[in-house]
Amino acid sequence: MAFHDTLRDVQRSQQSLLCVGLDTDAARLPSSLPRTVEGILEFNRRIVEATHELVCAYKINLAFYEVLGEHFWQSVHETLALIPRGIVTIGDGKRGDIGNSSSYYARTLREVYGFTASTVNPYMGTDAVEPFLEDPDHGVFILALTSNPGARDFQHLRLRKSPLYEAVVRKARRWDTRRNCGLVVGATRPRQMQRIRQLAPSMPLLVPGIGAQGGDLRLAVRHGCDRQGEMALFTASRSVLYASSGPDYASAARLAARALRDEINSVRTRR
Amino acid sequence: MAFHDTLRDVQRSQQSLLCVGLDTDAARLPSSLPRTVEGILEFNRRIVEATHELVCAYKINLAFYEVLGEHFWQSVHETLALIPRGIVTIGDGKRGDIGNSSSYYARTLREVYGFTASTVNPYMGTDAVEPFLEDPDHGVFILALTSNPGARDFQHLRLRKSPLYEAVVRKARRWDTRRNCGLVVGATRPRQMQRIRQLAPSMPLLVPGIGAQGGDLRLAVRHGCDRQGEMALFTASRSVLYASSGPDYASAARLAARALRDEINSVRTRR
Which of A72, A268, B82, B228 has the fewest Cβ atoms nearer than 10 Å? Predict the structure, then answer.
């Protein structure tokens, strides 16, 4: 089943457009947990148990796991095993290389880890992205307009008629021949998000930036969803994971995730 | 010592501007070796033994190792351990993420693995690149104009006055406050390389594309070196690693590497 259909189904059955980012940092674990790989996995287990009914997806940012060195693969593998089937898993590695090398990254994300979807950096163009798109079941979120300050440096640069990120969006629409391609669009720029949704009415948008980065959730929901009020994933990481630094971290994460899910649903159903 | 100085020293003591890419693929190992992690490490050991006198650097493309899953960290770690001290090691991961996440990638490349230098994707801008640049000892090669077909899709797009990759080059010059920043510039586009060398007269250029990708080595050397005929690294991977598929692969790799080193030196000393 093409990723677009999988995503819509999961969002309907879960009644949620929330994606929790498992960007787990040993240095920020509650003091009740050891600052080890075991501590990280126990934390992830309790967070997933507390939030899996409230989300459509989990996003695993590989940066936070690769730093574990020899425990990298195991920590990602075991975290994925904690996530119930039927929830979308996004391998957030922002990879991208010449075609021959990108095919290895694509195989790693799809087969070695078994993620449902990946994030991909478009700077190197079609042959860097194509290996990720080969399997229609696998979702590919192309970085278009990211949520960070550095997005200004290149993504907003004006081409003859439009900024670079719009060229990325147009190209991604052409790449989307198998209904598995999406876009990363930060919540920190709602006006531009509205424009991107016009350019790509049916592609899924992965939307970071609503928590610690300060994007306006309600505006992002209004502009990011498709006409059915679906096909956007609003990602929160730190604001859920570290909602409490005490031993009640899991229940605090559940409350934070529920509040986000409900706020998203309240805006999207009003359309 | 700032990376620029380290690189110049190594290139002088080794009398070489050649960088061998250890993009080792289990499926392409000689039939005398098992298609396992042990086979890959034995292959790398023999290749490094046969070529280390002929190179200034080895580049390890992480795509080829991450696909090994649970053996990823170990295979990179043990390959790095094979490389004699005094040779530059480049962690070719093309990473880049929002500042908070990029700081983990930077720590991984610099400290967890211990590479001398990294390749970084500029699409997400300053805060994505800055964590890699913090340590002057660590070299950072920013993807500017890559060697693959997809480079056409975005890197060549015209801004008001110049193509996107030139904006990346100008920005990288501003990022280079610690004399540790360089650029990735494919050998497949010599005219543009000449222009980039004018814009960045003293930055090191990492130049892929001279082997299997078909770039013109002589033109690349002529346009890529600085005024002293240094500060460019010409990378060959497949054309060295797989110079022979028989049991003589190591000596064939040595011959291929020596021919490349000598050809590079013959062009650069004629300036």
Answer: B228
Count of beta carbons in the 10 Å neighbourhood of residue B143: 27
pLDDT tens digit sequence for A137-175 = 999 999 999 999 999 999 999 898 899 999 999 999 999
| Mutation site for B-interface testing, chosen from A61, A74, A78, A98 by largest number of B Cβ within 10 Å | A98
CATH 3.20.20.70 fits A3-268, yes or no: yes
Measured in residues, chain B has a length of 271
Report pTM.
0.96
Chain A 232-271, residues with CB within 8 Å of chain B CB atoms: none
Report the share of chain B in percent with pLDDT over 90: 92
Q: Could you give the ipTM of this predicted complex?
A: 0.95
Beta bridge partner(s), residue B58:
B20, B89
DSSP A110: I
- Report d(CA B76, CA B92) in Å as an integer: 11
State how far the Cα of B124 lies from the Cα of B165, in Å rounded to an integer: 14
Measured between alpha carbons, how far is A33 from A35 in angstroms, rounded to an integer?
6
Cβ-in-10-Å burial (0-12, 13-18, 19+) of A271 comes to: exposed
Runs of H (alpha helix) within A114-184: 126-133, 151-154, 164-175
**Chain B contact present for A27, CB below 8 A:** no
For residue A252, the SS3 value is helix
Return the closest-CA partner of residue A216 out of A243, A230, A234: A234
CB B150 within 8 A of CB A99: yes
Q: Token pair of B183, please?
A: 């650029």
Amino acid letter, residue A208: P
Q: Is the pLDDT of residue A107 over 70?
A: yes
Please measure the distance between the N-terminal and C-terminal CA atoms of chain A and give it in whole angstroms.
28
- Contact criterion met (CB below 8 Å) for B64 and B72: no
Assigned token pair, A11 = 């969002």
Q: What percent of chain A has pLDDT over 70?
A: 99
User: What residue type is assigned to position B67 of the chain?
Assistant: V
| 3 state DSSP class of B128 | helix
Provide the terminal-to-terminal Cα distance of chain B, rounded to the nearest Å. 28
Checking if the pLDDT of A238 tops 80, the result is yes
Structure tokens at A39: 């501590």
**Helix residue ranges per DSSP H, B52-90:** 63-66, 72-82
Kindly state the average pLDDT of the residues A44-64: 98
Mean pLDDT of A178-199: 95
| Spans of all domains in chain B | 3-268
Instruction: For residue B72, give Cα distances in angstroms to A110, B75, B106.
Output: 16, 5, 17
- Mean pLDDT in residue range B120-143: 97
Q: Which residues of A touch B74 (CB under 8 A)?
A: 70
